[in-house]
């Protein structure tokens, strides 16, 4: 009878003890485990793995890490240009960011880019000084400014092509055509500004307009020819070079006429002769692929023909600018 009377009391004490233990266990558990235990789908939720504390982040520094460079034999056919440069080619990524990334590491296009990019930026920065301080006067300023902006555009188009040439065949072809336009623009600008300087005080002003019109016609025809799809292959390389040289040769006639008339001392024509020699020399180096032709692999990064050509183009632009300043500042 005594055991019967204590039975309800013992059962109540045991129930209270189990409830207290369970509550303390839940308090010591993590919040998400309490939620899952307390949820109506307790069994299903307990089978789920715990969520990750953080998602994996992208590899840091990828933009600064140079990729493995390729050899000439591993390139697609459209990317083949100079067989005498057998290594140090950028991979083809079809990505603008990867092309821009190539500005930060060394490859066989690095100096092709910077030999025109840096002079372009320097010229653009100094245009206000060069065009207004060297030769005060509205007419003189317009001639100098026109030449400087045309030169800057040409150099920027060239550096843009060499930067984006590893993107894809389609993009490379488009930027190459833009590079061609820049070459014709520079040739035409040099001829026109030189003619306007040499004939600024000549009584025969008709010659100035005649040479300007001739340059416009030849320049337009050259653009049309070099942009034709059938003229884009490597087999047309020599024809394109000849077309660019022919475009620049329009400037020979006014130079000869200035010497014939004995007016060379009052113009910058001697500097234009130096300019022409630099451009022809650079074109010859580029066409013959010297010096890498005689030592394939030695000039892959430094000193190959395209870099030499770029440097001679920049030197020719400096010579032309000097001729303009000398001629426009001379007493007629």
Automatic annotation (TrEMBL):
UniProt keywords, alphabetically: Membrane, Metal-binding, Transmembrane, Transmembrane helix, Zinc
InterPro entries, alphabetized: AdipoR/HlyIII-related
Cellular component terms per the entry's GO annotation: membrane
Family label: Belongs to the ADIPOR family.
Species for this entry: Ascodesmis nigricans
Alphabetized GO MF terms: metal ion binding; signaling receptor activity
Membrane topology term: Multi-pass membrane protein
Designated name of the protein: HlyIII-domain-containing protein
Lineage per the UniProt record: Eukaryota, Fungi, Dikarya, Ascomycota, Pezizomycotina
Superkingdom per UniProt: Eukaryota
GO BP terms, alphabetized: intracellular zinc ion homeostasis
Key word Metal-binding present: yes
Main location: membrane
Coiled coil: none
Location within or outside the cell: Membrane
Residues that coordinate or bind Zn(2+): 162, 306, 310
Sequence intervals crossing the membrane: 143-166, 178-196, 208-228, 240-259, 271-288, 308-329
Disordered, as annotated region: 33-59
